[in-house]
Amino acid sequence: MAAVARTLTLVVVVVASAVAETCVEGEEVEDTVLLAHAAHAAHATTYCREVQALLDSEYGEKIGKTGELFGLGQSWEKMEAIYTWKDFLEAVCTYNKWAEGANEPAFLGDSDVKIKAMTVVGMMANVKVETLHWTACKERLSLPDGSCPCHTDPEFVGGCSSGTTDHYNSVNAAKDAGFTVTTCNGVSAPADGCTDFWGNALDPKDCWYGRGVTQLTWPANYGMLQDIIQKVTGQDLCNNPDFVCNTAENGFVTAIGYWMKNCQEWDASHTFDAALAAIRPANTQANPERRASFYEWLKALGISPVTTTPKPPMPDEGETQVKAGEGCWQIADRCCDGQGADYATVICDPPACSPGPSAGTTIKYNCKGCN
């Protein structure tokens, strides 16, 4: 990286000197301007090759130097943005530095720069919603009595989530979300504890609420990323989940790790539905907004969306094979659209989804209720 920057400096300065020798007396201003450009070029940021290839393409210019296409870094409803385009680019390079050393696939590693641009669009269309237009990292939880501090504080817009500060724990991971893995690799309460969005210390067992660019939630999902995040950053998600929100780059690194764990459908088709499957949002109400952004941004980049034959809807009753990373909630939501919370009554074998089936297992379901 340093060698590249040094070569760039020498080339520009040599050009500047050569032009300067051709200037007639009294035109020192041309010298000054050219040397100023040389100094700017010498200090320009050079990113890892996956990012630089995107930035140097026609798509990089259309996205904008500060990610203007996606609205990154821009305030929303009088709330300041906490995520920037620079944070994202640096997170990609941080992740890819580890991936290269570990012989793992790089994020944005496709040789086709158009696919790189589409991947960025696919992620951004989802996470702009997850972060409340780039303004939030920690989930805005309601208090145990259901009240939302937003309603009494005019500084905040957007209200609270449906979750409460005493909800996201191992017990509810099984009872309410249908997870078969209910700890963060054996940890039910992080050693470092946590605070909520409002700055209040929580009971450590309740620390598994949504954080970061993808709003990572529930102990099993933190556990899924523990190993990779520890290798990339040296931090232990299971004992310090608040790490995700310590910096904006951390939030993006965690999101990239999550995407790479769930991007099989995206790599195969590059459609909006595949991008949605990589993020797997629990709340589907904002999916029309995600879809609209995806197509709007592809059009702005001059990229035609991939056209595919829509998948036929799942039958109301039948069998399906459990996908990697799916818990009971996700299985029910996939088979019976919008009925994830009803998994205990629509997953029939195993009865009430218990014991929780592992990936590759065939289960029986009935969206109208098991007999």
How many helices in DSSP terms?
A: 14
Q: Detail the poorly predicted runs.
A: 1-43
- Order of helical and strand elements: HHHHHHHHHHHHEHHEE
CATH architecture of the largest domain: Orthogonal Bundle
Q: How many domains would you count in the coordinates?
A: 3
Biggest sheet strand order reads 1-3-2
Helix content range of the residues, please?
40-55%
Number of E-type strands: 3
Briefly, what CATH class of the largest domain? Answer: Mainly Alpha
Strand content: under 5%
What structural class should be given to the helix and strand makeup?
A: mainly alpha
CATH topology of the largest domain: Lysozyme
Report the radius of gyration as a whole number of Å: 24 Å
- On the 0 to 100 scale, the average pLDDT is 86
Rough outline: globular
Alpha-carbon distance between the two ends: 64 Å
- Largest sheet report: 3 strands, antiparallel
What do these coordinates show?
With about 375 residues, the chain is mostly helical. It has three domains: about 1-45; about 50-310, Lysozyme (Orthogonal Bundle); about 315-365. About 45% of the residues lie in helices and about 5% in strands. It has helices spanning about 1-20, 30-45, 50-55, 60-65, 85-100, 115-130, 170-175, 220-235, 250-260, 265-270, 270-280, 285-300, 330-335, 345, and strands spanning about 315-320, 345-350, 360-365. The protein has a three-stranded antiparallel β-sheet with strand order 1-3-2.
Q: How would you briefly describe this protein structure?
A:
By secondary structure, the chain is mainly α. The protein is 43% helix and 4% strand.
